[in-house]
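This part of the workshop introduces the protein records we will be handling. To make this concrete, we reproduce a full record directly below:
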Amino acid sequence: MIYNTQRKKLPMPEYGRGIQEMVDYALTLTDRGERQRCAQTIVNIMGNMFPHLRDVPDFKHKLWDHLAIMADYKLDIDYPYGAIQRKQGGSKPAPMTYPMKKIRYRHYGALLETLIRKLAEMPEGAEKDGLTLLAAAQMKRSLGNWNKDAMDDDKVVMDLEHYTHGAVRLDKERFEAFMEPYEKAQSGRTGMAFRNAGRKGKRKN
C-alpha cells in the first residue's frame, strides 16, 4: 500500500490528487488542440467542486491560474486570461512573528491583564471604581469559562489585589450587589433552557 505521504506533494491540495493526476496527464499530450480541450475540461471540473464561488469576481480567472500552478507553469496552452508567471504565484508569504507574552494567570488572558495594570495607575475616584467593578466582572466570567466551580468572588478579590500589588482593592459586598442582576438573568436563562428542553422531549398525543 502506498500512502499519500509517500507520493508527490500536491501544489494545491484543495483540489485533491485526482485533479492533479488529470493535470499531469494533460502535460503528456503532444497535440496542442487536444491539450487545450483537456485543460478546459479540467477547469470545468475544478469549478464544479466549488459551485458556491461561481459568482465571485474573477473566479474563472483564478481557476486558470490554479491550473498553471498545478502544472508547474509547464502546460503549453492558450490561457484565456493570459498565463500566470511563476514569480506572481506559488510563493509563500513571510512567516509572521507570534507575540509571546508572559501571562500571570492564563485563564484571564493578556488583554484583561493589561487592563488591570492600567487600572492600578488610575487616580482614585468614581471612574476607577466603576472600571474596577467591570474588570472584576470580566474576571469572574473568565473564571467561569475556565471552570464553573472556580467562579468565586473571594478569588476575584484576591487575584485583583495580587495583580495590582494592593493598588486596587475590590469591595466584595459592592461587587456582589453589582453582579446580582447579571447572575439572576443568567440563572433565568438556564431555567428557561431546561424548561424548553423538557417541552421538546414530550411526545405529542
User: Anything to note?
Assistant: The helical segments are 16-28, 32-49, 59-70, 110-121, 126-146, 153-163, 172-201. The mean pLDDT is 83. The two ends are 57 Å apart (CA to CA).
